[in-house]
Amino acid sequence: MPKRHSALAHAAYHDLLRALREEGLRDLRGTPTLVRRGGRGYWYDSFRVGIEVQKRYLGEDTPEMSARMEAARAGKAPAEARRRERARLVRLLRAEGFLGLDPTTGSLMAALAGAGVFRLGGTVVGTHAFRLYEGELNRALGFEQTAQTDDIDIASFERLSLALEDAAAPPVAEVLAGFDFAPAPSLEPGRTWRWRQSSGNALVEFLTPAFAEEGLRDLPALGVQAQALRHLNYLIAEPIPAAIPYRSGVLVQIPRPERFAIHKLIVSERRRGEDRGKAAKDRAQAAWLIAALAEDRPEDLAEALEEAQARGPRWRARIEAAQARMPSSAALLAGL
Question: How many CA atoms lie within 13 A of 320 on its CB side?
């Protein structure tokens, strides 16, 4: 059974999550900065995107503009105090054993969040989502679950992206280019759903549910294409917010843990023949979540299982085949 984090860590995580969600409702963005050239002054909004500081032009320096900027600076102090408090909570979580991110991945997640990727429906899936369940479920991940992948998988509904009438800013392609990512070739010229880092092994993939044939779909809100996959609509329905303990915290969203667990059972059988290593990893993540959820949230787990089974004989067959390989998890599910 996964061990619990301390009550202090549990409270700190939810304080951080609440603070990040409240911060997302504020209009504050960066720091007003005056730059002088040729005897004239120009105001910029300076803000960080990943590891770089960018500037957005606001206007020429005038008495009125200067007064507005001073007022903005005066209002910056509470924002800085809030940032320091979030950073304190992150340090506390790291001291309590919460998993962190390496600087490159953390900066990239922060940049994607700053561009609005998760606000506009993007949901982190895969191992990076799994690692964040230790905060949601207040359970410490063991050594065998802590291996970090270089891949970042982000899923979103095509229909939601079309309906939002909003877009990431700066564009996702620009954010990725700033981290030395370039589009990976695909079977459709000029279109891609995968971005590979030129200086490393990192890979960012965009996914979307397939309601008919699998293939590439546009996600206008994110300005990218995504690979459509079956079973993904079940996984990313009703996502939940999550806090990444990096710097002063990064707000993302992830699938509900009970859906993630059942989805991993299905996926492990779907790709068992092509990649046994990944299938084993899928089952290990499912087993960890099932053990935690069967104790703390059995009703949620039972409902997710029933919904998946009700989607047809192929879904039921894959769930049953996965359980046959996982007798301990199967016993927990049978006892719900």
Answer: 7
Three-state SS annotation for 269-302: HHCCCCCHHHHHHHHHHHHHHHHHHHHHCHHHHH
Q: What are phi and psi of 230, to 5 degrees?
A: -75, 155
What band does 38 get if pLDDT is binned at 50, 70 and 90? confident
Helix (H, G, I), strand (E, B) or coil at 262: helix
Do the domain assignments include residue 30? yes
**pTM of structure:** 0.83
The rounded distance, in Å, linking the Cα atoms of 249 and 266 is 32
Domain membership of residue 2 (yes or no) is: no
More confident residue, 46 or 146: 46
Per the domain annotation, does 45 fall within a domain?
yes
Give the residue numbers spanning the domain of 15. Answer: 7-95
**274-291 confidence digits (pLDDT tens):** 677 888 889 999 999 999
In the three-class reduction of DSSP (H, G, I as helix; E, B as strand; rest coil), residue 151 is classed as strand
The secondary structure of residue 50, as a DSSP letter, is T
Q: Residues 41, 132: one domain?
A: no
